[in-house]
C-alpha cells in the first residue's frame, strides 16, 4: 500500500479511535487504482458513541459567549491552514481532482468559511415584536444540539469544514460522515479538530453510507442533518428520517444546469466561460456545473467550434502535476455510469464533437479515466438533456426565440444553477426572473461568493448554504412572552 497519510483513525469525543468492529475500508488512488490508505469501517455502535459524545459536549459549547466560540473557531482555522499542503496532497491523490484549482479553492474556502461564521456568531440575534401594547414579546435562537453533515466525494474536506462552520458558530456539536470513496483527508482533519476544539464538539465517523449514514439519519437525537449528493440519496434520507422522528433536513442535490447565450456576446469569451462553467478541472463532478449549453443560432457554430478547440486541448494526466487540466473521475462505478451516459447519447442520435470514452495511452490503462466530452444537437427529449451525468460531458443545443430558451432551460426536474450571457440588461433580468434555478450568474459561471446564499429549486434541493441563512438554519426559534 502506498500510504498518503499516517493517521488511520476517526474522531469521537475528542479521541482518535478505531471502529468497534475492528474492520477497515481501503481507499484507492483513482488515477492508478493503487491502495493509498485505510479508514475505520464504522458501525451503528460507533455512531451511537459519537451522538453520546456530542450530546455531552454541546451544552457547554453553546454556553460559551459568541466571542469565545469565535476565538476557538479561528484557532481551528489557523491549525487547518498550517497543514494545508499536507491536506492538499492527500485530497488530490484520493479524489482525482487536479491540484491547481484545489489549491486555490478547497483549502482556502474551508479556512475562510470558519472565519466568516466565527465573525457572524455575535450577530446571531432574536427580535422583539410589538404584538401588544402592554406586554413584551421576543424571540431567541437556540442551537439544535447534535447535528450531522454527510459530505460528498467531490470536495470532501472542504465540505466537512466549510459546511459545518455555521453549525459550530450557532453552538451545536457536529458529527461528520466523510464519503466512502475519498475519506482520507478526514483523518488529518480528525487530528486537527482533536487539538483545536473541545472534546465532542466535532466528531468524524467513517464508513459506508448504508451503515454509518443510515445510522446517523435514523438516530432520534440527531435532529438536524445536512446532505450534499444525489436526489435519489436525498429522498432516501428524507424517508429514513421520517420513519423515526421529525427532523430538519437540508439538501443540496443534483443539477442539470443551463448556460443561456444571447447573440450579442463575444464567442471566444463565451467559450472560455463555458469550459470553466462545466468544471472540467473537477472532471465535471460538481452539482453546479453548467452542463447544458443553450446557444443562440446566430452564434452557435462559432461558439461550438471555439469550445471544441479548448476542450480538445485540455491535458489529462497525474492530478498532482501542475500541468494537468483534468484527472480521473472518483471511482470505477462512477466512471462506468458516465460512459453509459455517453453510450446512450450516441444511441439517441446526439452528435459527438469530442471525447466520449476512455483516453488512449499506457498511463490511462489503469484508473478511472473519462475523456472531456461534448455532444451537439441535443434536444430536451434526449436522456442526455434530462439526466445529470456528474462527469465531464457537455450537452449543447441551439435556440432562436426568447421564450423557447426559457422553456428549454426549465425543461428538467433540476433547478440548482444557471448562467445568462448577454450585454442587454433587460434581457438578462427578464431571463433571470423566468429561469427556475436557485443560484444564477449573469455574464459569469460557476463562482461562489462567501456570504451569498447557495441552493436549489425543484429536485435540486431545499435550504440555502454559504450565507447568513445557513447560520440561522442551525438554530430553533424560541418565543418568550413577558406579561406585564
From TrEMBL:
Keywords: Metal-binding, NADP, Oxidation, Oxidoreductase, Potassium. Its EC number is 1.2.1.8. The active site is at 252. SUPFAM superfamilies: ALDH-like (SSF53720). It is an enzyme of class 1 (oxidoreductase). GO terms for molecular function: betaine-aldehyde dehydrogenase (NAD+) activity; metal ion binding. Residues 18-480 form the Aldehyde dehydrogenase domain. Belongs to the aldehyde dehydrogenase family. This is Aldehyde dehydrogenase. It comes from Pseudorhizobium banfieldiae.
